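TICKET: design request
STATUS: open
ATTACHED STRUCTURE:
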């Protein structure tokens, strides 16, 4: 019998498509693209063609006509328009975790909730203490956010020297962190709302709820209503990105007529958000002119110091202390394999604040000088946080592989190998992260499992028990 060669499409998939998809899904990829966009913005803004940077992003754009016209510059379109998609994707992840993920279990949600609160309150307090002057204190929300792409990217680069639980804890804290940041934007960084437009936005959300009750499973009706709702919220004075979060929270987390609507939206929109929207946002907002003594001015700027100190010390001490107290008081349990030094390393990495921090900067300040000073503070604080976090984690584990599991965290063992006995990683970890549907949690879980070098991932027993109830 003659050998049957694989069909060409299979060869193409193996040689080209699968590696490309694997690269896109990797944790580090989003951070690499975001870093590249940031570097391009900085180079562009500090080049001889600096004028073209401002000219491009301040280009006036008008959509529509008459009283319904949307007018603004290109940067405004990115910040208020495209970033709505970013917050929609964030809202989808929050909805999944609240309904079918770790945050639906009070015991599982307690630790990241307490940690995130500590990582918000202390950075804000430090900012207010350092900034001092009344005109600069509006930026207190800048150091409260964590950039998931950069923070998890650093963990991924550390590889097997970091326990898998570090990634899981960091992501769960970041999810709660996003919820708090969104509430801060909605409450403290929106102007006095227009009642008529706000009522229209509420009517749009009511229509979405009605479509859900009627069992409408197609996405396009929700898209049309969502656009009207976004426009109404935009005109109301409440920041337009909040519409994306609200619509995401109204998306069903469980299948509708056998269709996983939320999962499908995540798979389709996450790459667009990570590789188009967020890099464009960085390109439009990270271009700080560092020439002419700007860095020297930043060293004496209370705003720059307040942001950097809030990110580095606020996140480190806030999350680290809150987590330690929560564990000692038995409010929560650390992921298996993590030590107290790992907690401080994760807390430091949470100080990498970029996307949402830059976003809040533009909302807090109208003065371009203050925006530039705060942006430099974000750059410095994020860089120092990354270095401190990586140092703590590497020194805590040296060059060794997987460490012994502390007896305080009983575990069950699962495997990604279908032929092995026991539950699959999806079944065992479903209480915390559903790797079969969520693009963000999928990559974290897979990388965490590979990091052990054995193809096996150890889960705390209470996470596994949560999985059996999903």
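STATUS: resolved
RESOLUTION: sequence designed for all positions
ATTACHED SEQUENCE:
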């Amino acid at each position: 019998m003659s050998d049957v060669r694989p069909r060409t499409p299979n060869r193409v998939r193996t040689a080209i498509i699968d590696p490309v998809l694997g690269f896109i899904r990797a944790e580090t990829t989003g951070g690499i693209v975001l870093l590249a966009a940031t570097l391009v913005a900085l180079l562009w803004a500090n080049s001889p063609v600096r004028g073209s940077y401002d000219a491009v992003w301040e280009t006036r754009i008008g959509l529509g006509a008459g009283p319904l016209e949307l007018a603004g510059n290109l940067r405004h379109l990115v910040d208020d328009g495209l970033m709505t998609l970013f917050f929609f994707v964030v809202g989808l992840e929050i909805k999944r975790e609240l309904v079918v993920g770790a945050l639906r279990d009070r015991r599982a949600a307690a630790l990241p909730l307490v940690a995130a609160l500590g990582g918000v309150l202390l950075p804000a307090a430090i900012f207010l203490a350092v900034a001092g002057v009344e005109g600069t204190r509006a930026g207190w929300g800048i150091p409260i956010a964590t950039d998931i792409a950069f923070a998890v990217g650093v963990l991924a680069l550390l590889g097997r020297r970091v326990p898998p639980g570090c990634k899981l804890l960091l992501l769960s804290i970041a999810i709660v962190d996003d919820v708090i940041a969104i509430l801060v934007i909605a409450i403290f960084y929106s102007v006095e709302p227009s009642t008529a437009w706000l009522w229209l936005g509420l009517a749009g959300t009511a229509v979405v709820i009605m479509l859900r009750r009627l069992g409408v499973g197609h996405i396009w009706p929700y898209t049309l209503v969502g656009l009207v709702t976004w426009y109404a919220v935009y005109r109301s004075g409440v920041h337009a990105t909040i519409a994306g979060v609200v619509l995401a929270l109204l998306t069903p987390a469980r299948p509708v007529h056998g269709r996983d609507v939320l999962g499908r939206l995540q798979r389709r929109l996450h790459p667009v958000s990570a590789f188009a929207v967020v890099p464009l946002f960085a390109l439009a907002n990270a271009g700080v002119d560092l020439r002419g003594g700007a860095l020297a001015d930043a060293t004496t700027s209370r705003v720059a110091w307040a942001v950097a100190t809030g990110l580095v010390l606020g996140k480190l001490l806030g999350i680290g202390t809150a987590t330690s107290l929560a564990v000692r008081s038995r409010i929560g349990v650390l992921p298996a394999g993590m030590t107290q030094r790992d907690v401080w390393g994760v807390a430091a990495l949470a100080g990498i604040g970029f996307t949402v921090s830059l976003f809040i900067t533009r909302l807090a300040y109208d003065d371009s000088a203050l925006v530039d000073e705060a942006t430099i503070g974000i750059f410095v604080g994020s860089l120092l946080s990354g270095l401190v976090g990586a140092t703590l984690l590497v020194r805590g584990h040296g060059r060794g592989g997987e460490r012994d599991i502390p007896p305080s965290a009983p575990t069950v063992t699962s495997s990604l190998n279908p032929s092995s006995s026991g539950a699959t990683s999806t079944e065992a970890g479903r209480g915390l992260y559903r790797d079969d549907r969520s693009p963000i949690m999928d990559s974290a879980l897979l990388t965490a499992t590979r990091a052990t070098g054995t193809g096996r991932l150890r889960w705390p027993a209470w996470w596994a028990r949560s999985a059996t109830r999903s």
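CLOSING REMARK: The first strand starts at residue 60 and ends at 63. The two ends are 50 Å apart (CA to CA).
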